[in-house]
Amino acid sequence: MSTETAPDRITATRPASGRLRSGRLIGWDGAIVLVTLVFIAVAAVTVEHFGTSRNAGFLILDLTPVLLLALPMTLIIVTGEIDLSVASMVGLTSSAMGVMWNNGLPLETIMPLCVVIGAVLGAVNGIFVTALGLPSLAVTIGTLALYRGLAYVLLGDTAVADYPRDFTSWTIGNIGASSVPNVLIPLIVVSGIFAAALHATPVGRSVFAAGANPTAAAFAGIPVGRLKFWLYVVSGAVAGLVGVFWTLRYSSARADNAAGLELTVVAAVLLGGVSIFGGKGTLPGVVAGVVLLTSLQNALRLASVSTEALTVVTGSLLIVSVLAPNVVTSARAALARRRARLRMTPTS
Amino acid sequence: MTLLAQPTEPATGRTRTGSTALDLVLRFRALGLVIALAVLVAVTAAVNSRFVGQQSIRDLLLSAAITMLLAVGMTVVVLTRGIDLSVGSVLGLSAYVTADFLQSNAGTPVPVAMLVGLGVGAACGLVNGVVIHVGKVPPLVATLGTLYVFRGIVYFVAGGSRINASDMPPGFLDFGTARFAGIPYLIMVSLVVLVLIGVFLSRYRAGRDMYALGSSPEAARLAGVPAGRRLLTAYVLCGALAGLGGVLHAARYGTVDASAGSGLELSVVAAVVVGGVAIFGGSGTVYGAALGALLLTVISNALPVLSIDQFWQQAIVGALILGAIGLDRFVGLRVAASLRTKDSHVD
């Protein structure tokens, strides 16, 4: 997948500050990259139509919203927080876009406005989490309901669908006569920026420090609260961008757009080796997690597994990606204890 | 929240000496809820007097009964610093499985049907509990996962089909509408569960342990609280009550499809936090949560009467969650500050 090349180059040149476990030949994120490549190779051979360039185009369109939302989500989870409201922010900005279009605003004005609206929604999350010191889980469950509810208030159960063809066909179109989707290059650029920010800048190191030990980070002079606040703002702004993309891709602004997408995003991030407890993770791993999850869903859909059954797969992967490292760690600890006991017995 | 450490004394109920400020806040919270309820009902009744008619009140209580049941289970989990986002899916699974069971075993008495639902729910709760306690997966992640896994299973079992009232035995549907001394059975079931869990939490050692675990997990463990067993109990209880909620859902509505109870977890979480159960664990009562459930139901029933768009409902649920946790935090900080100045020797 060409999406991975940009972040991968960055990993090679940076110190492995975010490695899950140092001193081992390959970390969780490296393993996920391998699993992803193997899965795509196997699926291309065994699943009919999976390997076609047409399907690859669809796949990239499918993974665009997940990957975009996963980038800021990674940073937020690394700081030890979470944002469950991302899908609702997508729905609300999409609805806002529909309302503004109905009121005759030009799309050139609407699109940046949607990003601003998203940033404001994210700032609300940020204020609750940082200024009031509330648990992000509870806050973003609240805004998950609030933002989705406001989306329904704006549009009810109607849809706004008459966008200009120029915009909608660019969104789903390819570069020139090639089969490379238009969205791919912006997607790579944005992923590269996030990867560079996390792994090669002081901000990125602050993110890891804030997640590993907030108290120590605060004593080291890192403005933990301000950092988290701006991460929520970025998460909202990106959600606004995804709201625009979603609306144009399906040429339809609806209140229920992207409902439930937060599950896929969180699952992909955790699958990519980011620790839910904060402080650990890499962006190349997350990109691989997103690619693996979306191509798995794509392959299952091609194999005519129903959409509802897919949620079982996504939900299970979410649990397994947290469960598996825990099980491995505790098994290793048990083994070490037994070895220690065996060493002890002859002497005592 | 240091002041929440007091309820660790087992089995003595409300002997919180020295935290009168907290007592005041808790009492004020319940009072605030009752006042909010009264104002809302009064305003709505002024617009349309039929809102306080017998039939309307009965409908309202019937709807509240199911949310209340789930809120009671959720309270136990939230007290231990956990959360269970899968309750809506568990309700859906239990409702469908129970309805399907009744469809093929028409002669089943109602208590057996309730046992089936309880069993399905308890099994789901056990899965949550094992993943959380044994697998060390944070409750949020675990139950977000099972929210989709259980819902996926309902869709898998049900396909696109639905079970209609005509497929279910009339005895079961009667149970959904029948009353004793004017009170529908469903409401009585909820009230009995409410009181039972309320007594369990305030009078029994295992119940007090839930508060201890939520106040300070480390201290509770050092004090000999069997944390694993208590956590499993909490999640199994929460699942079982969601399962029972599924049976009541099937009996009340008579129609069950795969989407039954979708999104209900948000209302239940809202009811619990609005009812004064601290999302940080260790503080709150099931009676508060039940009041919260009642308030939420009254709001959703009042919206059409006040000719407010039904689409506002979810936004209100979200705003209530944010308002409740924000208020808790604000009041908690104030109380902590006043305690510090008053008797700083405690620390």
UniProtKB/TrEMBL annotation, chain A:
It is a multi-pass membrane protein. The keyword Cytoplasm does not apply. CDD domains: TM_PBP1_transp_AraH_like (cd06579). It is found in: Cell membrane. One of its GO terms (cellular component) is plasma membrane. Keywords: Cell inner membrane, Cell membrane, Membrane, Transmembrane, Transmembrane helix, Transport. Its main location: membrane. The keyword Cell inner membrane applies. Pfam families: BPD_transp_2. The chain crosses the membrane at residues 25-47, 59-78, 113-131, 137-155, 175-198, 229-248, 309-335. GO terms for molecular function: transmembrane transporter activity. It comes from the Bacteria. This is Autoinducer 2 import system permease protein LsrD. The lineage of its organism: Bacteria, Bacillati, Actinomycetota, Actinomycetes, Jiangellales.
TrEMBL record, chain B:
It is found in: Cell membrane. Part of the ABC transporter complex LsrABCD involved in autoinducer 2 (AI-2) import. Probably responsible for the translocation of the substrate across the membrane. The keyword Transmembrane helix applies. InterPro entries: ABC_transp_permease. The keyword Cell wall biogenesis/degradation does not apply. It is a multi-pass membrane protein. Its main location: membrane. CDD domains: TM_PBP1_transp_AraH_like. The complex is composed of two ATP-binding proteins (LsrA), two transmembrane proteins (LsrC and LsrD) and a solute-binding protein (LsrB). GO terms for molecular function: transmembrane transporter activity. It comes from the Bacteria. The chain crosses the membrane at residues 28-48, 60-83, 112-132, 139-158, 178-201, 231-251, 263-280, 287-305, 311-331. This is Autoinducer 2 import system permease protein LsrC.
